[in-house]
Write a structure and sequence with these properties.
4-stranded parallel beta sheet, alpha/beta, globular, binds N-carbamoyl-L-aspartate, 10 helices, single chain, 5-stranded parallel beta sheet, 306 residues
């Protein structure tokens, strides 16, 4: 039963609950118009304390396509946050006006604090370098559309595995499934953080950590590329030194398998060259579209409408 629940961490929902969301998302993707009046009297609040394109627009588009309305801010300085209001007070106020809220915040754990102050559903749309569970919903829907199921697959992750919250969430989610194996490709300074390492070790998921991409491409079912997270670095020099560690281009794609699909949460900077975009294995813009369908499903489930 997902009605009234919040999604802050992928571990907040059971496998069965995630299944309900994905089943509905696949239905919505086939016939989105069928749901155009489902949220007619509902309001979604979007509280974005950090920049966003896809996550905010896809949530807003999701609610509008369900016939609902959206309030919120994408620039916290336009709200009383600029006057020093706490996240707890902000969310308690918003609860009077909306039926559910989406929060993105630079501080790890901020959405968890918010959820403790209210009774309506709160969704974490990214907290610092920690987690981003709705990007995981997007990624999984895409994986299922391409290969049927997430089980028995080899997942490559490449780039900034230390600060990349989409990576942490997706690894946490996938670690609960049978036959999953990880190839983690990053510079030594950007390997997965301890909380992710602890999770995959505890769940006995086989993984290797390497600093070369080319020789492992063939065995991957999916390669999840990521941007080096400039905003999480303490100094510019380290960022400049590491930012172009891995660049996937058409030449490297020749070493990938015929069904090695390329995922990326976007935005990309340099890590995927535009000469990869027309390759049918490049799936990142499809992911962005699927993000709207799966967020429509999430909203319908948390409001208890479906
Ligand atoms: C990601 C994020 O915000 O963590 N973007 C997104 O939501 N699709 C990835 C990133 O910013 O690199």
């Amino acid at each position: 039963m997902l009605k009234g629940k919040s999604l802050i961490d992928p571990s907040d929902f059971s496998k069965e609950e995630f299944r309900e969301i994905f089943d509905l998302a696949h239905e919505i993707a086939k016939d989105p118009l069928k749901y155009k009046k489902s949220c007619e009297d509902k309001i979604l609040a979007t509280l974005f304390f950090e920049p966003s394109t896809r996550t905010r627009f896809s949530f807003e588009a999701a609610m509008l396509r369900l016939g609902g309305q959206v309030i919120g801010f994408s620039e916290p300085n336009s709200s009383s946050v600029a006057k020093g209001e706490s996240i707890a007070d902000t969310i308690r106020t918003v609860e009077n006006y909306a039926d559910l809220a989406v929060i993105r915040h630079p501080k790890e754990g901020a959405p968890r604090v918010a959820v403790q102050s209210v009774k309506f559903p709160v969704i974490n749309a990214g907290d610092g370098g920690h987690l981003h569970p709705t990007q995981t919903l997007t990624d999984i829907l895409t994986i299922e559309m391409l290969k049927g199921s997430v089980e028995n697959k080899v997942y490559g992750f490449c780039g900034d595995l230390k600060f990349g919250r989409t990576v942490h969430s997706l690894i946490k989610f996938l670690s609960n499934y049978e036959g999953v194996r990880f190839i983690l490709v990053s510079p030594e300074e950007l390997t997965i953080p301890e909380f992710v390492r602890e999770e995959i070790t505890r769940k006995n998921v086989p993984f290797i950590e390497v600093d070369k991409l080319r020789e492992h491409l063939k065995e991957m079912d999916f390669l999840y590329m990521t941007r080096v997270q400039k905003e999480r670095f303490f100094n510019e020099e380290d960022y400049i030194r590491l930012k172009d560690s891995f660049i996937l281009d058409a030449e490297k794609m020749k070493h990938a398998g015929p069904e090695t699909y390329i995922l990326h949460p976007l935005p990309r900077v340099n890590e995927i060259s535009i000469d990869v975009d027309d390759d049918p294995r490049a799936q990142y813009f499809n992911q962005a579209r699927n993000g709207m369908y799966v967020r429509m499903a999430l909203i319908l489930k948390l409001l208890g409408i479906k």
